[in-house]
Design a protein that fits this description.
Number of helices of chain A: 14
Order of helices and strands of chain A: HHHHHHHHHHHHHH
Structural class of chain C: mainly alpha
Oligomer: heterotrimer
Strand content of chain A: under 5%
CATH class of chain C: Mainly Alpha
Strand content of chain C: under 5%
Pfam family, one (chain A): BPD_transp_1
CATH architecture of chain C: Orthogonal Bundle
Helix content of chain C: 55-70%
CATH superfamily of chain C: MetI-like
Mean pLDDT of chain A: 88
Largest interface: A-C, 62 and 52 residues
Keywords (chain A): Cell membrane, Membrane, Transmembrane, Transmembrane helix, Transport
Distance between the termini of chain A: 13 Å
Main location (chain A): membrane
Number of domains of chain A: 2
Structural class of chain A: mainly alpha
Radius of gyration of chain C: 23 Å
CATH architecture of the largest domain in chain A: Orthogonal Bundle
Number of helices of chain C: 14
GO biological process, one term (chain A): transmembrane transport
Shape of chain C: elongated
CATH class of the largest domain in chain A: Mainly Alpha
InterPro entries (chain A): MetI-like (IPR000515), MetI-like_sf (IPR035906)
Low-confidence stretches of chain C: 1-17
Largest sheet of chain C: none
Mean pLDDT of chain C: 84
CATH topology of the largest domain in chain A: MetI-like fold
CATH topology of chain C: MetI-like fold
Chains: A mainly alpha (329), B alpha/beta (627), C mainly alpha (297)
Radius of gyration of chain A: 24 Å
Amino acid sequence: MKYFLRRIAFFLATLWAAVTLNFIIPRLEPGDPAEVMVRKLSGKDAQLDPAAVKAMRAMLGAPDGNLLRQYVRYLDALAHGDFGLSYTYYPYGVTEVIGHALPWTLALVGTTQVLSFIIGITLGAFAAWRRNSRFDSVVTLGSTFLGALPAFWIALLLLFAFGYTLGWFPTSGGYEDSIPGWNGAFIGDAVIHSILPAVALLVTTSVAWVLGMRNTMVLNLGADYIRLAKAKGLADRDVALRYAARNALLPSVTGFAIALGGLLGGSVLVESIFDYPGMGRLMAEAIGNKDYPLLQTLLLFIVVGVLLANLIADMLYGVLDPRVRRTPA
Amino acid sequence: MSILEVHNLSVRYEPRAHPPLTAVRDVSFDIAEGEFVGLIGESGSGKTTLGTAVLRLLERPGRISAGSIVFDGRDITHLAEDELRPIRWRDLATVFQSSMNALNPVTRIQAQFRDAIEAHSQLRSDAVTALVRQLFEMVLLDPAFLTAYPHELSGGMKQRVNVALALADRPRFVLLDEPTTGLDVVVQRSILDRIRSLQRERGFAVLFISHDIGTVLDISDRILVMYAGRIVESRPAAALLADPLHPYAKGLLGSYGDPRAETVHLTYIPGRPPDLTRDLVGCPFAPRCPERIARCLAEEPPLTPVGAGLVACHVARQQRAPAPGDDRTGVPERTRGFAGPTFVRSGEPAATERGPTILELVNVSRVFQRRRGLTVHRMTAVDDVSFTLARGRIAALVGQSGSGKTTIARLVTGVDRPSSGSIRFHTPDTTVEVEKLRPRSLRRYRRHVQMVFQDPYSSLNPTLTLGYALTRPLQNHLRLGRAAAHARAVDLLETVALTPGERFLNRYPHELSGGQRQRIVIARALAAEPDLIIADEPISSLDVSIRAEILELLHKLVTERDIGVLYITHDLLSARMIADEILVLNGGRLVERGSALDVIRHPADEYTQMLLDAIPNPFGRLSIDTI
Amino acid sequence: MTAPATPAGEAPGPGGGPQHWYTVIWSSAKARIGIVMLAGYVLVAGLAPLIAPYSGTRADFDPLLPSGSTHWLGTTSQGGDIFSQLIYGSRVSLLVGLFGGLLATVISLVIGLIAGYQEGSVADDALSFVTNVALVVPVLPLMIVLISYSDVRGLPLIVGVIGLTSWAGPARAKRSQIITLRNRDFVTAAKFAGEGPLWIIFREIMPNMMSLVAASFVGAATGAIAAEAGLSFLGLGDSASISWGTMLYQADAQGAVSQGLWLWLLVPGLTLALLITALTFINFGIDLISNPHLRED
């Protein structure tokens, strides 16, 4: 149990660090991002809500007041989910804008992450087991090259080939002719729209798992417990899965959160290429418009998302590896 | 009826990046049903490769390049994995040498028995559990550990699990590859005794691989001696012990002795085994052999019957079973012992007037505290130890792992500090309280106190030359200039018999053998002209045949220089050879101390007696036989 | 005594000792290909003015010319020569790779060495915590936010941000390696030879971790090159110079995808991918030094 408690404590500590980092970044800038935002928003609407101005100052920094008081105000704003107004989507608040985008990204990135993990681990384990075979060379070389391709470039090519040239898939957006909700028509529509972005992300992220899994498993295959398993006359399948792959999987699990971070980074580019209504596209838009409240809040959401994924991966690791779960007295 | 027959087996390693080598060459032997056969040889002799080949577990780049393996009348040399699988474990089981890591770390112990049992029998569910329980009891393990994970077991327990696992499917042949290496002598002993009695009970055949000739002789019916990938002698254990034929076997036997004897002679074999990547001409042992004749250098001796055994040696064959056409010029007289160099230690050290005290431990304790959450675990590594060491004397600190001997070394060298008590280092001018030293004065103190480490493979920096290793202490401690340090380093190399010294200065550690490295480590310790040397198991990671050589060298150098030595070991024989006095440690407490011969001959403490009993002592058996 | 994979044991000579690092790297076919490819890129970047027919920033040609003898890969919609842009773009990628990689490596070395050498101390706890946080914070979004606050968009900013955001993984690897090295007897022996801690770290321990340092440098350089391309594609790149990322940014912004201008899309991405492949191949070779098990035998 101690392991799990320690990981929860680590999660809370990193959460605090991330929230604080989010506080520090805008205040590192020589200018006054909050003031810039207020001025820009005033251009759109003279009747700016004073509460919204206050929230933005809490998020992005105020010229007056000491840092400690600003920090308290910032935490208070966070606690109330008050992130200010989005310049891009004025008069909507940042919370609302992100609230609409979040499910899309969760679905796209979540599915891709799980699929790429499963595909990558399976291919990697198989390549390691058939080490130095033709299958291994093809998978290793193919992964190296595919892993070198930038996800956004693959997205452009997919869009060009399957969107515009062949016309098999829609070229932009998250849905078209359906009304959002839990109905079959909408879900089907959304799935069709997300196939190309998902493939673009899958190609590059799954190969990282392939190479990682292959190399750990090749190392593990030299271990004494694998030799003993072979000497026991167990079926190849058992040795490969229950002995070699089972152990080689462990380091991959610890890389889960880092991979998710990479995937979210890639999704900023890919979503903006496909005009997919998720958080990545919001971020690309926020960059173009210098929409600091939106940008800063998106970063916070992304970081917290990754930290949560990390916590889940840690818990899973504890379940998978008895050595951390049951430390001898 | 032979259960295993090996005919003219050769194994080659053909890695891409290295020159190929023949690790096992033209080896033939057989093992009868229920026979217990020992296979001895030093590291690199090919014994593990041979064992792996017999189990058909060789992996690339190794392969069987010639010969055959016949198991129970069936040639298994080239059987496909699918055909081998049914006979694995049911007929051919094994305990690997590093069994610490032989269990799957993420599965419960029971599951690792279950898959082996279910793969080869009709037993399922509760019947399997019952069998595993029985196997646990057989190796004297608490069945409560059935559901444990490997990391929750101690080294000795893991080893017992591996033995039980090997016997799970009632195999007819078990390969034991150094099954107890790395364990405490006492634990080793009890596991081996258990294996031997189970073997008698159940009647399986065993090939027992070990570098430890004493243990092998103790336990085996017949012995195979391997050198440079070949079997050079095959004899019943008692015959080999009473009358070894091959000079290499004599040399190995000569590295053991009875520490209780008035005078102990230990022989050693100078030189090193041949490079197996090259083609060898003549007998591979000839360059190291004190009995060689001209023919040995030209013609490789075949393994031929002599008396009740086999030997591959021109000299031995001509001495015992001369053939009509033999040219007998130069053939030496028959000897039982190895005709090479010998390290002799007799009686009490001559006229031991004690010099001035150099090191003094007063009521020293070291308690380790480890915090886990809110609870604090205390572990007393050293418990109220007091002793003194005089200049020019060698004191052996003897105990098993966990006895606190290494902790004492760390305390004396200032690497660690005692929880209570005092450690005083005396020079004619001043007294240093070691536990109070600050980093800078600690550096000055280390000019006077140096260490010889256990593992010569990790105590020399692989990226730096030997010249560097020797000149740095000279420059730092003695403030010698570059040229002076260089000249002194050459002297030091020659002092430890690495000549000409110049040729070694620009070498890297990997170019040296283990024995040569350990000489460098000794030379480095002497470089700063210390008053006290801590030698932490300096011979335990070396091959048996050269241990006495290093021990003799160390003994000679420190006595010449009037240096006090704290010699740390688990091995009473080496303590007897080098030390003036012996201090026995158990669980952090000093349980016995006295002059070396006294402690060994008249142990007062039960624990000392136990350590003595654990020393494999084939010669004890011999003396009864021959007297 | 010996494991079956390494039967050499006491035997000295050619089979006994470790090989030189360059022999090990060169022994891998992949690494050989990678080194040759990288050399090609370096050559092209160095000789860009000689190879490229026009300046990379010149944009006064007719827009959207197809590929032909004057413009091998055609022109962009703003009238730039695609081939020349491609050649000059290699300079940005290599510079970002070199300096971004160096910066990340230096930061990771300092943090990894301090934390590792002082393992268990408060300094180590603090540094390890910072490292673990930096490791899980997604790099690209962080870079985006950091850069978007700045009004000046130059290469130094990109290099700086890349260095500051991508040191964590290598730092952790170095920390754990130094911990294993530090507990080797030769480090204790160096203390007995009278060496101070700095000497021990840099003269005794560092040479033993060169393959890790090299691998992490190549890895960081690879990451930096990819990050620059991504940032430039989002319009956060250096506005004064042309890079493969900015080429793709312009291609996307000018509707190259919908208009079927596939050469403009294909070529910059492909050159980028080949450069990253070359670096990955080189790292295969470097990995062999520390992981003999991966050697192809």
